[in-house]
């Protein structure tokens, strides 16, 4: 039986003293409270989202600079890693060029991810801020985001016609989807799965907080019922399989049969969704390249730079440099477009615009973006660093394996380097394995 491991406050260093809430600690709680607010005009623009929390995490870590030596020593490889993309980018900058704004946003995003990890370690291990308060703040924040989505959905109901509400959200959101479907407070509806399964699920597995445990399925089912998008349907099916694989006691015949039944139910739900969900049905019947505007655009955003990979081995290995995705998309566009058209891809204005993309172009995939900017060698170094750290921490539980596989899937269509899933995985490896709670029943 693989037990569920519950995070409590680990043994702190001598730096920490009695549990107190200093004024600077409010930055950390504000960062948690604003986690789901990543698509409004109030945030600072980073590649494909406008978050607030990463900057607050960084401010909290810098304010508590006296603790940084301790946390840097504990997570030294992660603190040093952003230097590697900086070094590999020199080759790309010398051979391709430099786009100052795009370069700054890309490199800053990497440091913001480290700042998130540092602030989590400072708050949990060193300052020992109350975990219950953190979880209450997190629960309340995502409940507010969910209620915002419900309001957006009600505003679209024909006989209600809440025009004022629609105008408010169209002015509040950086990229507006609320005139068609709820996007909650996220940069776009496809971010729902990242937040539910890349933030709330690892937090739930570490803490076993029942409020978070209930919030995840309520948010998922609610967003699907309100027609928030296709990706949340797919993400939820994959996450459900990961949850079943992580929690079922396979030594029990009854539990194993339950797992088989659960897999069958997920499969049946997938078939049902493919039959009755209009966008999924179009993807199944017409194909990924022509069945849905958004899906075909997402595929081409990834395909164009990948086409350049196969024709430039040196840049594929060492990268085209931070901020130079647009140059690579422009280089690979013609070949990728020929392949796309030959395989029945449906043309659309977004794909047409990539022939001469703006400097701050995106790929919609962390893998495509990272390898394009920093090279395959740098990407493999990041993967190796994560795997080695988890191994050294002896944290390879079934939950960790399933969370790693789920995160690997989630980042296929998500590229924000400063997002919170990887820092949470590191925290999960560093703390979660240290305490055991009873096995699931």
Automatic annotation (TrEMBL):
The keyword Transmembrane helix applies. It comes from the Bacteria. Keywords: Membrane, Transmembrane, Transmembrane helix. The keyword Transmembrane helix applies. The chain crosses the membrane at residues 12-34, 46-63, 75-94, 106-124, 136-156, 184-205, 212-234, 254-276, 288-309, 374-392, 404-431. This is O-antigen ligase domain-containing protein.
